[in-house]
Specification:
CATH superfamily: Macrophage Migration Inhibitory Factor
Distance between the termini: 36 Å
Structural class: alpha+beta
Shape: elongated
Radius of gyration: 16 Å
Number of strands: 4
Strand content: 25-35%
Helix content: 25-40%
CATH architecture: 2-Layer Sandwich
Oligomer: single chain
Order of helices and strands: EHEEE
CATH topology: Macrophage Migration Inhibitory Factor
Amino acid sequence: MPVVKIELAKGRTIAQKREMVKLITDAVVKTAGVKSENVWIIINEFEPDNFSSGGNLQIDKYDASMLPSESD
C-alpha cells in the first residue's frame, strides 16, 4: 500500500486538490502496479507564516488580500 504525503501551503481549492490526488494516484498505479484503492494520499496544509524560503517567511510575499483575517 503506497502512501504519498504532500506538504502544501493553504490556498488550493477542493477542486484543485481533487485533480491533484487523481493525477498522483494514476501515476502511482501506473508506476507501482497497484490498484487505485490501495493508494493513500495525505495532504498536510500549513499557513504561509509557518513556511520560509530564502530566509523570508512566505507570508511576507503574499498580497495582504490573500491572507486569512485575524478572526479566521
